[in-house]
UniProtKB/TrEMBL annotation:
Keyword Aminoacyl-tRNA synthetase carried by entry: no
Species for this entry: Rhizobium tubonense
Name the UniProt record assigns to this protein: tRNA-dihydrouridine(20/20a) synthase
Superkingdom per UniProt: Bacteria
Signal peptide range: none
Designated gene of the protein: dusA
Length: 347
């Protein structure tokens, strides 16, 4: 295995000596601050990403709501959406006060609302705009600026489009590139279909690492297990899991050991329950609802006896008026945790 590159600002933030990074992907409507807090209680080392936040929203909207987070969420990256270098520059300046560890530019999201704003995956068609945006962000950022892209869109030839984009953004100082190893079809496929239908091409990502050996390159797309992640680490520096973690968060329980080399320990689900109950109580006291927190916890015990009842309690009772942290306790009580961690992790 070749030497792992390292995103500069994350050096020394983990116990991983070879520079590998396991990340939880930015997912619109999913990886909000409550989701990230929950994930952080299971893995202390995984790099977490915010949902994509549009630069215009940061400039004109409720900044604390959009950018605020718990200090425990670090290491934490902010993903920005936009295509106007001036607006992205202002968003980076504003975000500085929130002390993110990385700023990432979205060049991969295929949703309709992103396309209407001429950013996300459609930026693959204008790599010069991406380079100008990264250059502007780098000029003011005090943390690494990275790019998350697809291998191409529509009729583009990935063998030309991907290295062209990479060369342009690296020339202006991009610190790392995360690659979703599928094309995005902006015409004819829905965002959901774009996550599954375009075929995966991991080999092209591996070739990009060979072409740019000193650059941190991470891979994303269709990775379901830590075994698969470990396999990818033979070729790239970072692995990003999305839906697999959201739908079965117990996968994170072995990340610190298997990826970052920490001593193996049993997952402490009782501590997790108590921590999330206390967090939910604080959120409700500030005017929030239990559902805001509990909805991210539904997939935790996939594969264990009682998991169905656990899901039912969190999905229904947490949304009722006046629901409190006791709903989380009731949900955990429905699961037979004596069946062991391994079943949940291998589901």
């Amino acid at each position: 295995m070749q030497q792992q590159a390292q995103i500069p600002a994350l050096q020394g933030k983990s116990h991983c000596s070879n520079g590998k990074i396991l990340a939880v992907a930015p997912m619109i409507d999913w990886t909000d601050r409550h989701c990230r807090y929950f994930h952080r209680q299971i893995s202390g080392e995984a790099l977490l990403y915010t949902e994509m936040v549009v630069a215009d929203a940061i400039i004109h909207g409720p900044r604390d709501r959009l950018l605020g987070h718990d200090v425990s969420e670090h290491p934490l990256a902010l993903q920005l959406g936009g295509s106007d270098p001036a607006k992205l520059t202002e968003a980076v300046r504003i975000a500085e006060a929130y002390r993110y560890d990385e700023i990432n530019l979205n060049v991969g999201c295929p949703s309709d609302r992103v396309q209407s704003g001429t950013f996300g995956a459609c930026l693959m068609l204008t790599p010069e705009t991406v380079a100008a945006s990264v250059a502007a962000m780098k000029a003011v950022a005090k943390v690494p600026v990275t790019v998350k892209c697809r291998i191409g869109v529509d009729e583009q030839d990935p063998e030309q489009a991907l290295p062209d984009l990479m060369e342009r953004v690296l020339d202006v100082g991009a610190d790392a590139i995360w690659i979703h190893a599928r094309k995005a079809w902006l015409k004819g496929l829905s965002p959901k279909e774009n996550r599954d239908i375009p075929p995966l091409d991991y080999e092209i990502v591996y070739r990009m690492k060979q072409r740019f050996p000193d650059v941190f390159i991470g891979i994303n797309g269709g990775i379901h297990t830590l075994d698969e992640a470990v396999g990818h680490f033979a070729h790239v520096d970072g692995v990003m899991l999305g839906r697999a973690v959201y739908q079965n968060a117990a996968l994170l329980a072995e990340v610190d050991h298997r990826i970052y080399g920490h001593p193996a320990t049993e997952a402490d689900w009782t501590r997790l329950r108590d921590t999330m109950m206390a967090y939910a109580e604080r959120h409700i006291a500030r005017g929030g609802r239990l559902h805001h927190v509990a909805r991210h916890m539904v997939g935790l015990f996939t594969g264990l006896p009682g998991a169905r009842r656990y899901r039912q309690i969190l999905s229904t009772d947490a949304g009722k008026p006046g629901a409190g942290p006791e709903v989380i306790a009731a949900a955990f009580a429905a699961v037979d945790l004596s069946s062991g961690r391994d079943e949940a992790l291998s589901a």
